[in-house]
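ok, trying the design again with the full structure, not the truncated one.
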């Protein structure tokens, strides 16, 4: 039997988050007898996906961070691609600072793909400098949304790749909900939630102020924070400050988010900016109503009657009122499957497209080598 073709993905770290979850959803479903995914990361973290990747046959290489040791990073990346004959290299990113890696991959003979996963980044000046080099460094341009594509590529053409999901996994399941409620002893509570890394852009401190307003009106309210990150200590301090310790549940990283989503009644998501949050698509599959910030891309709304928007300029009490009102409406939890599939978020559809995309790149790479141009 022929060996699968190995595709190299470059990611900062394979720690659960929107970008990383998308890659893993795809990796789990793709035919690994045809395509095997390997990874370059600059960091290993507790509870990351690396053990799972290696069990599935993937290889993981840890290289120095590009911004801290660019010469070593680029030299080792070039050598790695050449010595393993990687013909396709895909860089997943939120900004264009990574263009030197794509140039190194191209010089090593690989077809290069940039996949934009965000529509904004704090390092704007350096991003726009990097974007000038995109033309020569990238063979194919992908983005999770239109705004993420424009942020990364400007006026150049790109293909939108929706962060597709296994629909059957995230549909509401009463048994899953009851298991979570029993685990946390919240059978009689009104359950609000947020799922995402504990980082500045997610706006958790504002969310805690919103939840304080909810808890003042509803003594049965509890809030799930699912995720981990650099702001955990500050969030814990804020919880103490607001006297919410008995009402806010910090779960850390969980690998049963589909179970937790069945238990959550309302999602509150006041992000300062986002590309297109995978969590919110998963939540719509689970039939969860949500209040989200108006900074989040319109394309996230793929169902009817579940997504409510508030401005980040609105006061906490306005956010709280919206969240409480939509919980009291008691919407059914049926999955609007046809609408979600029509919007392109079914993992089965994505796997079929992505397999063809990779095969086309591999064939073009082979032709280049035959023609002696690489």
């Amino acid at each position: 039997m022929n060996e699968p073709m190995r595709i190299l993905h470059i990611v900062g770290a394979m720690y659960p988050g929107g970008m990383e979850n998308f890659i893993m959803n795809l990796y789990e479903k793709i035919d690994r007898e045809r395509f095997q995914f390997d990874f370059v990361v600059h960091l290993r973290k507790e509870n990351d996906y690396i053990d799972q990747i290696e069990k599935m046959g993937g290889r993981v290489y840890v290289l120095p961070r590009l911004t801290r040791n660019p010469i070593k990073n680029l030299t080792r990346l070039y050598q790695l691609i050449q010595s393993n004959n990687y013909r396709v290299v895909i860089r997943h990113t939120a900004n264009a600072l990574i263009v030197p890696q794509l140039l190194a991959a191209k010089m090593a003979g690989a077809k290069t793909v940039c996949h934009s996963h965000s529509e904004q980044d704090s390092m704007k000046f350096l991003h726009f400098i990097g974007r000038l080099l995109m033309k020569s460094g990238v063979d194919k341009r992908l983005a999770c949304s239109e705004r993420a594509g424009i942020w990364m590529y400007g006026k150049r053409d790109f293909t939108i790749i929706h962060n597709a999901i296994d629909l059957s996994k995230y549909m509401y399941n009463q048994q899953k909900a009851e298991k979570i409620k029993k685990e946390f002893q919240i059978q009689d509570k009104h359950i609000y939630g947020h799922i995402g890394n504990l980082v500045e852009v997610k706006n958790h401190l504002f969310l805690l102020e919103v939840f304080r307003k909810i808890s003042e009106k509803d003594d049965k309210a509890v809030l799930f924070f699912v995720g981990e990150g650099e702001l955990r200590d500050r969030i814990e301090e804020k919880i103490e400050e607001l006297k919410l310790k008995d009402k806010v549940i910090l779960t850390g990283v969980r690998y049963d988010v589909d179970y937790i989503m069945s238990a959550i009644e309302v999602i509150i998501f006041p992000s300062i900016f986002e590309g297109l949050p995978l969590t919110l698509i998963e939540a719509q599959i689970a039939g969860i109503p949500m209040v989200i910030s108006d900074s989040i891309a319109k394309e996230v709304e793929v169902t009817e009657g579940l997504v409510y928007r508030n401005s980040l300029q609105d006061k906490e009490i306005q956010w709280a009122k919206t969240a409480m009102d939509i919980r009291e409406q008691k919407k059914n939890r049926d999955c609007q499957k046809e609408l979600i599939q029509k919007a392109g978020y079914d993992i089965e559809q994505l796997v079929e497209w992505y397999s063809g995309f990779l095969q086309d790149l591999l064939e073009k790479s082979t032709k280049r080598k035959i023609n002696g141009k690489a």
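Keeping the full-length input from now on. Residues 5-164+346-370 form a domain with the Rossmann fold fold (CATH 3.40.50.2000).
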